[in-house]
Amino acid sequence: MSRQETKRDLILFSNSPGEVSTWVAPVLRRFLCHAFASSFRTFLVIHPCQFASGNEPFVAESLEGVDTVVPPAQYLRCMLWGSWWKRYGFKKEGVILSLGGSLKHPVAFKKRAGVGYPLYAYTNNPDLPGREKEYERVFVRNEYVRDKYLARGVPDKSILIVGDLVKSSIASNRSREDARKSLGAAKGETVLAVMPGSRAFQVHFMLPAFLKAADDLTGMVPDIRVIVLKSPFVTYRWIEEALAKGGKIKEGNTIGGTLLRNKDEAVIQIRGNKTVPVLEGGLEEWGEAIDLAVTLPGSNTMQLAYRRIPMLTVMPLNKPEIIPIVGPLAVLKYIPLLGKPLLKKAALSYTKKFRFAALPNIYRNEAVVPELFGVIRVEQITEMLSDIIENNGINEIRKRLSVFDTGSDPADEIVRHVWG
Predict the structure, then answer these.
(1) By residue range, what is the domain housing residue 95?
(2) φ, ψ of residue 330 in degrees (nearest 5)
(3) 3-class DSSP state for residue 145?
(4) pLDDT of amino acid 97
(5) Do 91 and 202 fall within a single domain?
(6) Is residue 316 a contact partner of residue 294, using CB atoms and an 8 Å limit?
(7) Residue 262 CA to chain centroid, in angstroms?
């Protein structure tokens, strides 16, 4: 019998950019550190999700340790025709670990694929029922999430608090000196990172808005250098489309530009022949160089928080109908004529449930980092960034971010409890 035939299966489930990059990636890294990892074949199932970028399977294929990626379309075909799972040749022994999205998907898969693997999950969404009672162990961020599950009747022994899994994704590949030298940033120069999101609709609307705000800022504040951090889930085609749209967005005052690419380098040429570099590698490569970021809500706000990088989080409600919402109301976008106004109303109602937009503020239930949440003018973004820079806001925000401890390693805890 070959070594491949004797391997067990590890089947991971995930759904969208934040979960793939800050949950799946660190758990895989910790898993691969152990000798038992060589006795598993690893599958990553990307199930459908309204928060997905569409490029999760391509990013997932680049993750070390993933043998097979099952994209959403293939997953749906296999769920509709259960016999399709046979092509994967699942073994008699294995483990299912959910790292993002509804916990219903792994349960349904287990039944449809006819495997008896134990179920494990890490989740931060206790308000979305997912047959969690069928899981051997549910790993959660804090007592609030744990208490929510206990109230739904999940046995106490099944829930384990491990902390925020985003912590485990924090890594730096270069020093501040090296990163800033690569950028050509002088001593005393403020490096502002523009982070326009991981999904097409975010990039299309927010890249031109953020570029306008950042460019105006350079005329107000001396010694500032602007960079664009490109998410691995974002394509250059999206960036080109966003730049072509810039200046023509009726919901806001924006600017366009031209994307120039040369081998491994990319820059955006904006008005006045000024250029802004577009950088790959994310916060791992460039985080040490950054003094301030302007970003959209999401897992990236916690990555910035754990790195002590001050930020302005922008959650615009200028076009609420494009905001993904959870639950049955999400189908409104498919209804002709009436769907758009109804979805707009539903999205506005949905966002009212949240006091804050940035995860650091949500987690602490206080304004740790500044944010703009509502119908926003680009000028407000510029003004707030200027105020942060000129009034010692960078140092003040950095001090407030010290409340986020990076000492524990939730990914290691999860691996230890699943395979310990």
Answers:
(1) 3-163
(2) -65, -20
(3) helix
(4) 98
(5) no
(6) no
(7) 28
Instruction: Give the span between the Cα atoms of 171 and 283, in whole angstroms.
Output: 8
DSSP label at 321?
G
Residue keyed to tokens 């491994």? 264
CA-nearest of 15, 30, 161 to 98 is 15
Q: Provide the token pair at 315.
A: 């959650």
Strand 68-70: give its sheet, edge to edge: 68-70, 40-46, 8-14, 94-99, 119-123, 137-140, 159-161
Return the percentage of the chain with pLDDT > 70, whole number: 90
Residues 399 and 345 in one domain: yes
Q: What are phi and psi of 381, to 5 degrees?
A: -65, -45
CATH of the domain at 121: 3.40.50.2000
Q: What are the structure tokens assigned to 332, written together?
A: 């409104």
Cα 95 from Cα 210, distance rounded (Å):
43
Residue 2 — very low, low, confident or very high, per pLDDT cuts 50/70/90? very low
**Considering the entire predicted model, what is its pTM?**
0.91
* Average pLDDT across the chain, whole number: 91
**87 and 216 share one domain:** no
Q: Structure tokens of 136?
A: 């051997």
Strands 258-262, 371-374: pairing is unpaired
Same domain, 107 and 250: no
Residue 145 identity:
V
Q: Say if residue 30 is in the same domain as residue 104.
A: yes
| Euclidean distance between CA atoms 237 and 360, whole angstroms | 31
